[in-house]
Amino acid sequence: MASEVWGARWLNSTSEIARKYMEVSARKQSLVCLAADRNTMSGLFELLEEVGPYIAALKTHVDLVDDWSAEKWKDFCTAAKEADLLIFEDRKFADIGKISRSQMAGIYDIRSWSDLVTSHLISGPDVVDGLQAGWGDVGRVGGVLLLAQMSSRGNLLSPEYTDQVVTKGREHPGVFGFIGNGSRPEELSELRKKVGQEKMIWTPGVNLAVGDGEMGQRYGDPREAVLAGSDCIIVGSGIHRSKNPRASAKSYAEVSWNALIERES
Ligand code: 5BU
């Protein structure tokens, strides 16, 4: 089923996690990654229960949960796995390789439950090896999404910087893909040309209500983002702050899936 819609992307992919994502997205007919930005464990469980069937991945910020505990988090990750979801910790690592490796452990032990993490490449390519070593330390595999662009206004990721991230990231087997700016389809099309077809592009800054968000966030249209080359729309408040998160997640799933079919046919 994944091969039907993803075509050559699926057939040629050498990444276990990318294939897994394409399979889950095809099963659920959704390219939605929920940014589960709720700050209580009960809020997180409630959200997962409501929208699980309509999303393909779950993005977390483990360090913003007020009542976090290792035990509750373990249960939450188990529930996410049962809901057929990839778990993506948006940690935005940026340190040298050996420290990034250690930061995958520590109190949150990100290496033990995440399938994907975000990282800047500002410190050089060893950060990716450090993160991969972190997963290796617990016998797991994972994928790194490098920040090639950001959705926030005034960010310092210049086109030249983006090019370097893509050139270096494209060659690295530990790199699952890139974060692109979902709020600007024209920037995304450029990014897709540089990235090629092998790696993924996932995009925050997407909302059915386009325009400026809170504190410098910018929003673009989900359909346009997918048509411009996004493989996964990362949606937070568009779902978790809506009056009916379930109905909203369903709408984002439909829009993203239809856009993928339109793009690939
Ligand atoms: P929103 O509520 O849809 O605006 O949430 C967006 C989420 O995506 C939030 O968790 C951010 O941390 C995350 N994000 C982003 O908005 N922009 C970026 O460039 C990156 C991540 Br990288």
Strand content: 15-25%
Low-confidence regions = none
End-to-end Cα distance, whole Å, is 15 Å
Write the H/E string, N to C: HHHEHEHEHEHEHEHEEEHEHH
The CATH H-level homologous superfamily: Aldolase class I
* Oligomer kind: single chain
> Sheet with the most strands?
8 strands, parallel, barrel
CATH topology (level 3) name = TIM Barrel
What does this 3D model show about the protein?
By secondary structure, the protein is an alpha/beta fold. The protein has a single domain (2-264), classed as Aldolase class I (TIM Barrel, Alpha-Beta Barrel), CATH 3.20.20.70. The protein contains twelve helices and ten strands. An eight-stranded parallel β-barrel has the order 1-2-3-4-5-6-7-10, surrounded by five helices. Strands 8-9 form a two-stranded antiparallel ribbon. Helix 4 (41-51) runs parallel beside helix 5 and helix 6 runs parallel beside helix 7. The protein is globular. It starts with a helix and ends with a helix. The relative contact order is 0.15.
List strands and helices in order, with pairings.
Blueprint: H1 2-6, H2 8-12, H3 16-28, E1 32-35, H4 41-51, E2 57-60, H5 70-82, E3 86-93, H6 97-103, E4 116-119, H7 126-137, E5 143-147, H8 159-171, E6 175-179, H9 185-195, E7 200-203, E8 211-212, E9 218-219, H10 222-227, E10 232-235, H11 237-240, H12 245-264
Parallel strand pairs: 1-2, 1-10, 2-3, 3-4, 4-5, 5-6, 6-7, 7-10
Antiparallel strand pairs: 8-9
Helix pairs in contact: 4-5, 6-7
Bound molecules: 5-bromo-uridine-5'-monophosphate (5BU).
